[in-house]
Design a protein that fits this description.
The protein is α/β, with parallel strands linked by helices. The protein has a single domain, classed as Rossmann fold (3-Layer(aba) Sandwich), CATH 3.40.50.1820. Helices cover 40% and strands 15% of the residues. The chain is built from nine helices and eight strands. Strands 1-2-4-3-5-6-7-8 form an eight-stranded mixed beta sheet, with helices on both faces. A hairpin with a 2-residue loop joins β1 and β2. α2 runs parallel beside α3 and α3 packs across α9. It is globular and about 50 Å long. The relative contact order is 0.15.
Length: 303
């Protein structure tokens, strides 16, 4: 007997998915980027507040090599453990505050202090501004603690992978390992998951505007823009990738894992049935905590 298509995910996830599908059906016309940023921040604030109740961390604004950053500290930090985290938001929005549902959980689960740069956003600051900011912070952190790990989600996952390619090309120290959540691996945005367009949290229709704001007419196959096309080999840092079967960027995640495996680069791909783009952000669904625990387990083996 056929089962309901949402029977494979938790009731909490099914309810959230249905709500977002309804919101998408009644979405308004595009606003100015400033209005979009304000609206997104307001919409995400309740989730951040719930996450901080679940994962009680301390946040502090600091300066790292001239770049403003948020420092996320667990109650009992291990002074030897540090993670550089790149927030998401399509390169045009987002902030360290908005990604606290992820970074607070990882800080608690790894006992690591997490540094999240306030990198510059497009369109005011197009490529390579964000990557330059992340590079500056990474070089400083790695010089002080060579065992610094790297993580990021969505656009931040793109920046984490692009950063690793840049550091390797320059012959500079790289993070010992990286974990990327629904990373944007190929800004050409090709693949079955893009064409299927089943992700109400990241509709395929937004990709052209995001790409134009961030890149203009840059070469989309530059590894610092689309990390999928970079050089991978057995010396590439161990990489953990998460995605969901509804994730609009799933195809890029699968292609990344395949390219890395073909090059003997260490990669662990986790695909979550029925879930969407960066589902780990939502603290009310059990799948988010389960995936964040798996990510933390991976990171804990590489400090």
């Amino acid at each position: 007997m056929p089962t309901h298509p949402l029977a494979s995910i938790s009731p909490q996830a099914a309810a959230l998915l249905a709500k977002e599908q309804q919101n998408l059906a009644h979405s308004k016309a595009p606003q100015s980027i400033q209005d979009t940023r304000k609206e997104t921040l307001s919409a995400y604030r309740p989730a951040v507040e719930r996450a901080l109740l679940k994962y009680p961390v301390t946040t502090t604004e600091i300066n790292v090599a001239g770049i403003a950053c948020m420092q996320v500290t667990p109650p009992d930090p291990d002074p030897s453990r540090q993670i550089l985290f790149c927030f998401g938001g399509g390169f045009i929005q987002g902030s360290p505050f908005e990604d606290l549902p992820i970074t607070a959980a990882l800080a608690i689960k790894t006992c690591a202090t997490i540094i999240v740069p306030h990198y510059r956003l497009a369109p005011e600051h197009p490529y390579p501004a964000a990557l330059d900011d992340i590079t500056t912070v990474a070089q400083h952190l790695l010089a002080a603690n060579p065992k610094t790990l790297l993580s990021g989600e969505s656009a931040g996952g793109n920046l984490a992978l692009a950063l690793t390619h840049r550091l390797r090309k320059l012959g500079l120290p790289t993070p010992s390992a990286l974990a990327v959540l629904s990373p944007a691996t190929d800004l050409e945005y090709v693949g079955d998951s893009h064409d299927a367009d089943r992700d109400p949290f990241l509709p395929a229709a937004v990709t052209d505007d995001l790409r134009a704001a961030y890149l203009g007419t840059q070469n989309l196959r530059d590894p610092e823009i689309s990390p999928l096309y970079g050089k991978f080999d057995a010396t590439f840092p161990p990489t953990f990738v998460t995605t969901g079967t509804r994730d609009m960027l799933m195809s890029g995640c699968l292609r990344l894992a395949r390219v890395m495996r073909q090059a003997n680069a260490p990669v662990d791909l986790r695909i979550w049935e029925g879930l969407w783009h960066v589902f780990e952000f939502y603290p009310d669904i059990p799948e988010a905590d389960a995936s964040l625990s798996e990510i933390a387990d991976f990171l804990n083996t590489h400090f």
